[in-house]
Amino acid sequence: MVATLVLRDQYKPLPAALVCLSPWVDLTSSGNSYRENSEKDPYLRCDLVRKTAQQYAGDESLDNHLISPVFADLCGLPPMFIQVGVLKFC
Fold it and tell me: Could you tell me the pTM of the whole model?
């Protein structure tokens, strides 16, 4: 998705469509689901997610739209299919 944002901003040709498989679009971990599910999912602990996000972002801010596309203006992008999985915990 981010590559397509860069192409759009540089007025380059865009792909016909995007397929996003479980995209990580909010590296700020600002969604309630991180806190609400922290005890249910030992792998995606908030502290580890934040550390990994900062390692990826380097010196860039986590709310930079090219780091966390949830903050991007998606106007002008091609159609997107976004596939996500949902875990159900008893």
Answer: 0.80
